[in-house]
Amino acid sequence: xxxxxxxxxxxxxxxxxxxxxxxxxxxxxxxxxxxxxxxxxxxxxxxxxxxxxxxxxxxxxxxxxx
Length: 66
Prior knowledge:
The protein is mainly alpha-helical and 66 residues long. It has one domain. It contains three helices and no strands. The longest helix is centred in the last third of the chain and has 19 residues, at 47-65. The chain is globular. The mean pLDDT is 81.
């Protein structure tokens, strides 16, 4: 996937998060897919998105445990 395509998908995802959030699990899943693609392509993952991924992962793990 081209960097422009990944950036466009990230922009769209961020717009969804800022607007009507919808299903947060779906947004997290899509974010994780995009960041995994960055990693697989050897591209650096933006620090703020890596932090968001970690925070959401911890949140959903704790939600599942309660």
